[in-house]
Specification:
Largest sheet: 3 strands, antiparallel
Helix content: 40-55%
Bound molecules: fe (ii) ion
Shape: globular
Distance between the termini: 32 Å
Strand content: 5-15%
Structural class: mainly alpha
Radius of gyration: 17 Å
Strand order of the largest sheet: 2-1-3
Order of helices and strands: HHHHHEEEHHH
Number of strands: 3
């Protein structure tokens, strides 16, 4: 069994002006594709074949198989990223997730400020995540390919802060990229579904 690059859940120009078609085509068609193809080569004929991406991430980390971990985690992280963004995004969350955001961050504005601060303070390549930790919401950052599931956290939303995610459109201005995501493109419906299924399983 080999892994396949998942299709984007929208057309490559659907997130403009937040992200250009060129950025999305490069990010998905070159970077994400590269992780999936490298992973397939690395696991060919190994004990990892037949495992899910999640299982590969956990086992490769335990065993110190760094290249396999990096490519499996990046495959997983990017699939989660495409769903975290939406052409119809950007409204404030309502329902149980909206209540949990107010409880954890004071308000939607408080959430946005905390999320942006984590995005800007991630030194170098990495990710910012909204996660469920012990029933409550938290914002965490991970470096390079690292992923919250590695740390027992349950992600509900992410943003990629590797330069490859925004450099063509924003150059080095990560703050403007994060602002645009938060105001126009957050897929709150996806985050709410994740939040409610984690709560239901708890
Ligand atoms: Fe990326």
């Amino acid at each position: 069994m080999t892994f396949e690059l998942p299709d984007l859940p929208y057309s490559a120009d659907a997130l403009e002006p937040f992200l250009s078609q060129q950025t999305l085509e490069t990010h998905h068609g070159k970077h994400h594709r590269g992780y999936v193809e490298k992973l397939n080569k690395l696991i060919d004929g190994t004990e990892y074949q037949g495992l899910s991406l999640h299982e590969i991430v956990v086992r490769a980390k335990e065993k110190g198989d760094t290249a396999i971990f990096n490519n499996a985690a990046q495959s997983l992280n990017h699939s989660f990223l495409w769903e975290s963004m939406s052409p119809d995004g950007g409204n404030s969350p309502v329902g149980p997730l909206g209540d949990a955001i107010d409880a954890a961050f004071g308000s939607q504005k408080g959430f946005q400020e905390a999320f942006k601060a984590k995005a800007l303070s991630q030194f170098g390549s990495g990710w910012v995540w909204l996660v469920v930790d012990s029933g409550g919401l938290k914002i965490v950052q991970t470096g390079n390919a690292d992923t919250p599931i590695q740390h027992g956290l349950q992600p509900i939303l992410t943003l990629d802060v590797w330069e490859h995610a925004y450099y063509l459109d924003y150059k080095n201005d990560r703050g403007r990229y994060v602002d645009s995501f938060l105001s126009d493109r957050v897929n709150w419906a996806f985050a709410a579904r994740n939040f409610e299924s984690i709560k239901a399983a708890a």
